[in-house]
Amino acid sequence: MPELPEVEALRRRIEVRALNRTILAVTPGNDVTHIELPSAEERARLEGHQFTEARRHGKYLFAGSASGPWMMLHMGMAGSIRVLDTDEPQADFIRLTVDFEGPRRLTFRDPRKFGWVRVIDDPDAVIADHDLGPDALSIGEAGFADRVGTCRGAVKSALLDQGKLAGIGNLWADEALYQAGIHPEARAADLSEEAVARLHRTAIRVLQSVCDTDATYSELPDAWLIHRREAGRACTRCDGAIDKIKVGGRTSYHCPDHQDRAA
DNA sequence: GACAATGTTCGCAG
DNA sequence: GCTGCGAACATTGT
How far apart are CA A178 and CA A175, in angstroms? Predict the structure, then answer.
């Protein structure tokens, strides 16, 4: 689930329901072996503070305030966040809970344990340390051409490289390439200037559209690839059929007929 | 039981 | 030193 638009939807949940409330306790959930969570000391640092701001960079999420510590979260493959009234039932696979005054509770759920939570002091410094590229929604055409359009490998691998561009994952990389008519295995550096610009515009439009629905896939246009990620399904843009291949080790759905290797 | 899964990280080869 | 690739990570669901 969690690429840029999905993480943005989680950020909004925090913004709408979990800001400006004093943190009473931060508690690890059940079965927290093999998952990185803040130590007891770090959890205690959050208590008594409020989150006044929720930020996102790529797929990374931050909640904190100018004066206090920040909680940094990554959703891994299957993590999610809910903000509940404390009398609502707890779901399975909750790895961390933050109890606020109110009462209200933020829960971090992560069945597959690929996500993690840290307590940090300065989001900007951590973003720089992680060697993350600019957020995919904020990069301009020239920056995109410079960072993605020069890669010697497959254009899809370039889109997925968080050091070049932060936020695009497997689903929305496929979607952007499908809508831009570019083959995932095309060498990025071989694409025309026009094709790179088209991919940039398309990627931003795709990501923004998904954000606009709060990452509710059923509200996305029927013609999108997201609704037909299955080999053999009919393409919505030409007479072709969707094919499933591996690119850079990731499952990739595309239409061999209209997605051009030499765009 | 085997396999695939929307994430990142690490080691190796070029 | 940088870039690109494949495997590994822990667990669930099909």
Answer: 5
